[in-house]
Amino acid sequence: MTVLVSQVNRLRKLKRPVVGVGCASTGDTSAALSAYCAAAGIPSIVFLPANKISIAQLIQPIANGAFVLNIDTDFDGCMKLIREVTSELPIYLANSLNSLRLEGQKTAAIVILQQFDWEVPDWVIVPGGNLGNIYAFYKGFKMCQELGLVDRVPRLVCSQAANANPLYLYYKSEWIQFKAVKANTTFASAIQIGDPVSIDRAVYALKNSNGIVEEATEEELMDAMAQADSTEMFICPHTGVALSALIKLRNSGVIAAGDRTVVVSTAHGLKFSQSKVDYHSKKIPDMACRFANPPVQVKADFGSVMDVLKKYLGNKTPNH
Ligand SMILES: N[C@@H](CCOP(=O)(O)O)C(=O)O
User: Fold this and answer.
1) Which molecular function term from Gene Ontology is one that the record holds (predicted)?
2) What is the whole-number distance in angstroms between the Cα of residue 133 and the centre of ligand 1?
């Protein structure tokens, strides 16, 4: 996002008629845009689907001084509206159909290679919604190959929530015909997108990296998130979608035990704390919440506290 906002800053210094930067968002693009625009002193305008993003996501653009429109539609409706508006008004569009976003995002691939000491991982798994990310990763890896820094690109996996899975359905139809879907509610709300703007670029990236598309049900993604959290992480539900793909591909043997695999995490878990509260209090209809760790309610007296502690510790063996 800073690549794009820096470019807009330059255009404005050149006296080009750009009154502000706008985006439709499921919560993360708007947070980044509003922060960088605030730093650059450029007005930001964000179109958000009302009641479909977390409070932590909503408050970021508000706090950063963006002009926030809460629109009674879903992300795809917001995207359609901002495209119409930016074709009428001199507002610069910041969603990932703008190639400046992709140029910035592709640096994530370079960072992965650098962290792997320029050895190419076998797999990179990315959660997919509007689908700019998966293409940007491909673009970054391909650029490094063309520069001779590495000799190949990793196999890419794009993982979608089963409730918002147009790419998965397209892949399963062997790329016969793309059909946008109505995105249903998912805990992975940032990828609750039925008509991704970067569909063609994503397909190009997947075909050219011998890629795979996976999907995760609500139960699978929430269980994967809880399992990851219990190992010291604190991931977002979208990362749970990507981890579910890893679990499935590993179980089916597609990803082998020795394969080096990167799972990309796209947001901080603290932005989605309500989903974790719901899971750990086992309040989600039709979900077993197998890895829930609810707090134990106990009376404020020594005996009661000792009783529950002894019961808990009785199940544990000392670690010598
Ligand atoms: N998940 C995104 C949706 C918009 O995607 P973009 O990459 O086209 O900006 C968000 O957080 O808003």
Assistant:
1) threonine synthase activity
2) 9
